Amino acid sequence: MAVVLATVACAPILPPPLPAYPLPEMAVESPSPGGIWSPFDPVAEGDVVALRLSGLLIPVRGVLLAKIEDSFDAPRDGGRRHDAVDILAPRGTPVVAATDGRVLRVGTNALGGNVIWMVDTDSRFVYYYAHLDRYARGIRTGDRVVRGTPIGYVGTTGNSPRDVPHLHFQVMRMTDSVNWWNGTPVNPVPFLVEPATLTATPAKS
Fold it and tell me: pTM for the complete prediction?
């Protein structure tokens, strides 16, 4: 079945650090050409080298790298750029943590639907998993999670087309530990790796 990824217009919003009051939506997708990681930034380059050495596990169970279309630079309405990759898979396919880290937020928003935000153990990169059908049992904010741990399931919540279940997977270099959702987008595709075997590890708090 042929799917045109350009029709999938999805973007996360600014998550409130405290759920006491609503905040306006703010898309993380960047207007081109601003908000893009520069290979000439020596600090960013060091972080990306670390990302390349560690590798990111493909965050959807059973999907091969050859089947992932690089939609990072795909245009979106309003002159935005996707700044993420959409990984297509049947509804209910397990979504797993791409790397070891900690859950920053489990919640919902209008654009992303059911979403999970994570940060790696070095607090270098923030990871955003969106359009989840549902969360893995027991997953919650503050959990320490091992790479390969199931955290949710592929779905179409938020602004995803109902007939195109997929994971919206976004990686951002953390530039502010307080406003961690405002990081610089990094294309995850060059860093994705396929597991030889995948052993599920329960989420830990």
Answer: 0.76
